[in-house]
Amino acid sequence: MKVDGTKKVPQAAGNHPWVSASLVVLGLGALALAVFWIRKCRSSGGSKHEYSALKTDGGNEKFRAEQQIRDGVFMACKHYLSNNDRYELKVQLGEIGSRTDKHWFSVQDTTLGAERLLTLVPVPSMCPLNPSSSTRDTLLDLFRGLQHPYIHPILDVDFWDTGAALISPLNPSGSLKDLIYASPWHEDYDKKYSCRGDGLPLRTIQCLGRQILEGLLFLHNRYFPPFYHLHSGNVVIQNGVARLAGLENALLGLLPKAPSAPETLAFGYLLFEMAAGYELPKPPSPAHLQLELERAPKVADALGFIFQNTRTPTLEELVCCDLFRGVELRELRGASIVQAVTPPEVIELLEIVRNPMPPSPLRRKDVVVIIEDRRLEDIIEEDNEDSDSNNASDNR
Question: In CA terms, which of 32, 258, 271, 361 is 20 to 30 Å from 389?
Fold first, then answer.
């Protein structure tokens, strides 16, 4: 058996010479392929290094430009506060909001011994108000009259050459958006909201949503202009209570954040973000609501009532829907909401903001987003009526 086995091995190799030849060919092919990939990696490695260096240089230039702007705003804030007897500059905060032209600072109120948030807001060319000392006094009267448990207070305001400076309480809890995405309030906007949030519990959505609606209704009762700036970043959370912020945006003529919409639709976008953990770029479809909000059918029904209705519901109707009916508002029990007579200067200021003199901001292309929710047929019909009235006046 042993002798026969040794004879079969060379016989098998001799009968199949193509096996050895195939192994040689495969080895040479593998060697050639390895050489090819090594040369390719070396050649591409140089170009990759050059491209990365170019991208880094561009990023450094952008960073330096942004840093120069921040340094300039910091020096301006330091200069103005050096002549202020009440507020002391503590530190400049990062880009905690979505507006790149807004700047935030932590200041110390030496009179009350409290830390405050100073927000420096640019005054756009389309601002309906005249930045002056009399306007400042009227704005202070307006903000003092907006004391409500669901309104974030503005404690002080002043006009600088670089914009409007507003003082408000500093809340470590941050905004509703910080709560949704479970992010620290003081981090940069692009970093803390880069990942999708988990959404909030149903009970939290009901309580915060009802509080936001009550805040909007209060503004309506005080003849405040339509609040197109409603979004999760403009809702401050203080001791678990939602408080509307960013009221100065509507008064100074700042453009709303997209997608801008009337308060009811904007509340719908906000409601979806609270439940799903991310923003909607446009109104959701019924299939979208069913897919994303399968575990929150009450929220889906409320959003269907807002977006799938033949007409846009009112804020009062939203308060009465199943999602918010019966929600207890403990903050309103012992609250002393001031019902004082509104000064005529404040009424005049609000009238200027609501109905600015021509050219009206609503007719400008850069604020057409304010009316993007209206039906095209309605806009065309209004334009036709305007043209007909103009023709009739020309024929007189």
Answer: 361
